[in-house]
TrEMBL record:
This is [RNA-polymerase]-subunit kinase. One of its GO terms (cellular component) is nucleus. The lineage of its organism: Eukaryota, Viridiplantae, Streptophyta, Embryophyta, Tracheophyta. It comes from Panicum miliaceum. Coiled coil: none annotated. It is an enzyme of class 2 (transferase).
Length: 249
């Protein structure tokens, strides 16, 4: 059975012939890094699960080779649907999830992030598609470590995440349009070679693009671009501040 596809590979549901255990098996295509990318993801997932003390991360089961092709596969715990899928299945106009359920979910997310950060691992791609919901929808688990990094690697990386959820494009050109509409279009001085790109020569003449930045109009009081991301609340502080700091019952 084909499960929801990750950022860099396809995932299938399978059963271990000897044990009967249901697992999820991921393959990473060559266009997304192939074996090297898969082994890198496996490394971070294994480290995040090390010692079994992070119950809110999808379990690591190992790396195997496909008998027919000898391609590497990442074997993981099989958990229920993604939060993204569950939210999309909600009927229009239906009431939001109960506050207690939201608090429990946030506590689990903060706990998962705190344990990873303590192990010097940053997920970098926490979103509804990578949050799996299982055990009667009472437990959530982080998945897809394809973009994970270690804070011990170069360049240095910190747990504080991006401050730019403003540009919600759904494809490459749409992403650029969303950015340029607010920040203005670049030129060869700010983006060397921009005038020769396909976007500049083909797309821009057909679009009414903003030439100047309008960021200050959206944030007249406090400019988001001036905020230091390192001052953002870490997962540990967020749990202390939140009323959801108690574990779910």
């Amino acid at each position: 059975m084909l499960l929801p596809q990750g950022a860099f590979g396809a995932v299938v549901k399978a059963r271990h012939r000897a044990t009967g255990q249901i697992v999820a098996i991921k393959r990473v295509g060559e266009d997304h890094g192939g074996h090297a990318a898969l082994l890198r993801e496996a490394r971070y997932l294994e480290e995040a699960c090390r010692g079994g003390d992070n119950p809110f991360v999808v379990g690591f089961r190992g790396v195997v080779r496909a008998p027919a092709t000898l391609d590497l596969r990442l074997v993981m715990e099989c958990v229920g649907p993604s939060l993204h899928d569950l939210l999309r299945q909600r009927a229009p106009g239906s009431p939001p999830p109960p506050e207690a359920a939201v608090r429990a979910a946030m506590w689990q997310l903060f706990t998962a992030a705190k344990k990873m950060h303590d192990g010097h691992i940053v997920h970098r791609d926490i979103k509804p598609q990578n949050i799996l919901v299982g055990d009667g929808r009472s437990v959530i688990k982080l998945s897809d470590f394809g973009l994970a990094m270690s804070t011990d690697e170069w360049p240095p990386y910190e747990p504080a995440g991006t401050l730019w959820p403003l540009f919600q494009g759904f494809y490459d050109q749409g992403q650029l349009c969303a950015i340029f509409d607010m920040l203005g279009t670049p030129d060869d001085s700010t983006w060397p070679g921009f005038s020769s790109t396909t976007f500049a020569t083909v797309m821009m003449p057909e679009l009414d693009m903003q030439r100047e930045s309008h960021l200050h109009e959206h944030f007249p009081e406090r400019k988001l671009s001036k905020k230091d991301s390192r001052s953002s609340a870490a997962s540990s502080r967020a749990n202390r501040r939140s009323a959801s700091r108690q574990p779910p019952r």
